[in-house]
Design brief:
Structural class: mainly alpha
Strand content: under 5%
Low-confidence stretches: 1-78
Largest sheet: none
Helix content: over 70%
Number of helices: 34
Mean pLDDT: 86
Oligomer: single chain
């Protein structure tokens, strides 16, 4: 049942209402009486405390387009506050905070129709646009323009309402009036128009209006850029390409236009490369475009090409910290830790407060076995949001240099500020214990903490993994079924239970159902591919098994996957190939339990 006006207002006693009204006249907000009730919805000068569950931050952006109203530079109009107007404003404010946006909008629109206050009218227009009450938005917007003829937001938002209401001619009249005010501001006005229209407008009417304006102001590159953006939004790529070509004629080195052009060629990576190469050859100093191209290459999986562009960019712009970060991350991904460390250190020198880069730098030093440097850089971390993670990373260093007992003792010294951090710390301790072969202690630790946090899925999943190692299928399945009841579409939960049933029971059909579901959800996950390959092996589909297992190994060279591939080759009679993969597994992790057991069975 929806709440009506009387229901909403009845929640406030007369005393509360009088307190609310008295606050209007306080010195806190230094604003006019008529302005305050609705500002409660959108500004920090809130006259009502939010009720439980209210999300003030959820005000639609189109409702609060400008941080200050147009009246900020106008004379107060001194209009008398009537009881009816106060009622509507209060109702609107309270309804908004109660989440009854329709009631709030209707009340505010009624208030706007009974006042000459441009601030109230402006807020009503925004709210009407948000509620898609475009007729009312246009009606009130035209009054807003009359009251504040120099306020560009009045024209733009009213024009937005007009195009969304299919009133193209009205929108054209409004926007032409705005653009005619000052020829020197034409480019700026198109930019302001773009900020609103490209986010909130849509449809052929919007594109047609912008195209007409661009033809009228045909020498304004900003006008054509706006057309290109709206054409892209409408998937009218012919108009988009024409607009971009027009911009590049007007401003041959326009990085914005070149960026749009690059995106318009998304169907052909070769065409993108050809365009970007030619543009950068002619305009080598277009650093924004070069960065955009590098990021596009990254999305296309061309890490080598992206790295080349980023290195050129950094050479031309030595202070470009974003380029430093991406270069460092790319080198880290390639396991070139020397280069990664060099560029993370350069970024920290450029941005001394970047503690996230300190964590990455410490990791690079750790990989290079430069442990003292890693510890020193972690000791520099001071950002409250990163100190805990720095401590966790330090514990891994201590484990490597001083042993498990020292690392566990260090973890106990870390300050924990939330249940999430408590869980993370417990998991870190569990994994350390497992690496030290202290499986019983690891299991007891997780089991005990799960009693404190019984609804924590991370802890339950870790206990489920522990029970597999203990060969306790019943307990494992019980935990996994609970997890799957929480997230039935989680590919890893499906895969974990499916694989366990596959190797620890004769319930092949159930295992196959779970593994196949996981594979449908994440077809390129290496561990799921391994499970799928092992399922095919159990079904005696050896060629299919090798196809999945080899794909898994190509994605993640894991010793257990190598063990599986070797077993399938051995059963096929290709002992040489089997030994080859087992040897690879030994190089990856000679202590892997599955690998050792597999070799023991076949290499007697």
């Amino acid at each position: 049942m929806n709440k009506g006006p009387s229901t909403i207002l009845s929640k406030f006693s007369t005393t509360n209402t009088m307190k609310l009204i008295s606050r209007f006249n306080s010195d806190v907000c230094q604003s006019r009486l008529l302005f305050l009730p609705f500002v409660a919805m959108v500004s920090s000068c809130s006259t009502l405390a939010p009720t439980a569950g209210t999300q003030i931050d959820a005000v639609p952006e189109v409702v609060a387009v400008e941080s200050q109203p147009d009246l900020a530079t106008e004379q107060n109009r001194g209009e008398e506050l009537t009881a009816d107007l106060l009622y509507e404003l209060l109702l609107s404010s309270i309804a908004f905070q109660e989440g009854e946006i329709d009631v709030a909008a209707e009340a505010l629109i009624r208030a706007a129709r009974s006042t000459q206050d441009p601030v109230v009218i402006a807020r009503a227009v925004r709210m009407a646009v948000h509620n898609k009450s475009y007729d009312q938005a246009v009606e009130l917007g035209l009054r807003w323009i009359d009251l504040v003829p120099k306020g560009h937001q009045a024209y733009i938002i009213t024009a937005l309402a007009a195009v969304m209401n299919q009133q193209g001619e009205t929108a054209m009249e409004i926007l032409n009036s705005l653009l005619a005010q000052d020829a020197e501001l034409t480019g700026l006005r198109f930019g302001q128009l773009g900020e609103v229209f490209l986010q909130h407008a849509e449809g052929e009417t919007a594109l047609d209006v912008l195209l007409q304006l661009a033809n009228q102001y045909s020498e304004q590159a900003e006008a054509w850029l706006l057309v290109a953006g709206m054409a892209q939004k409408n998937k009218n790529f012919q108009i988009m390409d024409s607009a971009l070509d027009r911009i590049l004629l007007l401003e041959p080195g326009s990085e914005k236009a070149a960026g749009y052009k690059l995106l318009s060629l998304a169907d052909s990576e070769a065409a993108q490369e050809q365009f970007a190469t030619a543009f950068l050859k002619e305009y080598p100093d277009t650093n924004i475009f070069r960065m955009q191209y590098a990021q596009l290459l990254l999305r296309n999986g061309n890490d080598k090409g992206a790295l080349a562009q980023l290195l050129i960019l950094l050479k031309r712009d030595p202070e470009n910290s974003e380029a430093m970060n991406l270069i460092a991350l790319l080198y880290q991904a390639r396991e070139n830790f020397e280069k990664a460390a060099e560029y993370f250190a350069l970024r920290i020198k450029t941005i001394p407060g970047d503690d996230r880069s300190r964590l990455y730098l410490a990791n690079a030093y750790q990989q290079l076995e430069r442990y003292d440097q890693a510890k020193a850089i972690l000791g520099e971390v001071s950002d409250i949001n990163e100190v805990f993670n720095a401590g966790r990373q330090m514990s891994l260093l201590i484990e490597q240099t001083d042993g498990v007992e020292e690392a566990l003792a260090y973890l106990q010294t870390l300050q924990v500020n939330s249940p999430t951090q408590r869980v993370q710390l417990t998991v870190d301790q569990e994994l350390m214990l497992q690496r030290a072969g202290r499986d019983e202690e690891a299991y007891d630790l997780i089991n005990n903490i799960l009693e404190q946090y019984p609804d924590n899925d991370i802890l339950r999943y870790h206990r489920a993994l522990n029970t597999v190692e203990r060969e306790d299928l019943e307990s494992h399945e019980a935990d996994m079924r609970i997890l799957l009841s929480h997230k039935p579409g989680d590919p890893h939960y499906n895969n974990t239970l499916g694989y366990t049933l596959l190797v620890m029971s004769d319930r092949l059909e159930e295992a196959a159902e779970l593994i196949n579901k996981a594979h449908e959800l994440e077809p390129e996950d290496p561990y799921i591919l391994d499970s799928k390959g092992w399922l095919e092996y159990k079904l005696n589909n050896l060629d299919s098994a090798l196809e999945y297992l080899n794909r898994a190994f190509a994605l993640d060279q894991d010793a257990e996957i190598a063990a599986h591939i070797g077993e399938v080759y051995w059963v096929q009679g290709n002992e040489e190939k089997a030994r080859e993969f087992w040897d690879q597994g030994d190089k990856i992790d000679p202590t892997n339990k599955s690998l050792l057991e597999t070799k023991a069975r076949f290499l007697k």
